[in-house]
Design brief:
22% of the residues lie in helices and 16% in strands. With 162 residues, it is α+β, with helices and mostly antiparallel strands. The radius of gyration is 22 Å and the shape is flat.
Length: 162
């Protein structure tokens, strides 16, 4: 997932700008662009090298992202783009407030603080045990979630929920 601060200063929140799907085929783990199918539908307009960039082994993807981050910091001086009056780039999700208070955004929490995001739905409910898929190493067949009750072992043998 690629995150950015909310496009508005009305709310202090992260906004997901893009996600890449992580897929496992046997032992191989790859990362796939969400718009790969769109580009493949227009295959005649792109080279095979271009299309190969839309699906990569996870280890290669991690390397490219890390190299890109280093290059971005070198070019921008650690800011979101080139310019001394722009906010610093945030690489720690816990530092959203300093971003809003910093140069380029300049929110004053004393006079115009952004609202906090709403609570997570069900966040006040008692904690539930995790639902399992049956693919765990412990040999369990999985559990089926039951609303307002205890999860029940899956009797279908597939390990999948309802």
């Amino acid at each position: 997932m690629f995150l950015a601060p909310s496009a508005t200063t009305v709310v202090e929140a992260w906004w997901m700008t893009e996600f890449w799907d992580v897929q496992r085929t046997g032992e191989a783990v790859s990362v796939v662009a969400p718009y790969r199918d769109y580009f493949e539908a227009w295959r005649s307009r792109f080279t095979e090298e271009d299309l190969a960039l839309l699906e990569r082994p996870l280890s290669e993807f991690e390397k490219v992202i890390k190299e890109g981050a280093v290059a971005r910091v070198a070019e921008t001086g650690g800011r979101i783009a080139v310019g001394d009056d722009l906010p610093m780039l945030i690489t720690d999700a816990n530092l959203l407030r300093p971003y809003y208070e910093g140069p380029g955004v300049g929110i004053s929490y004393e006079t115009d603080a952004p609202l906090l995001p709403p609570p997570v739905p069900g966040g006040e409910d008692p904690e539930q045990p995790p639902v399992t898929t049956g693919e765990e190493d412990d040999g369990s067949s999985g559990t089926v979630p039951v609303p307002d009750g205890e999860d029940q072992p899956d009797s279908g043998g597939s390990g999948a929920g309802p």
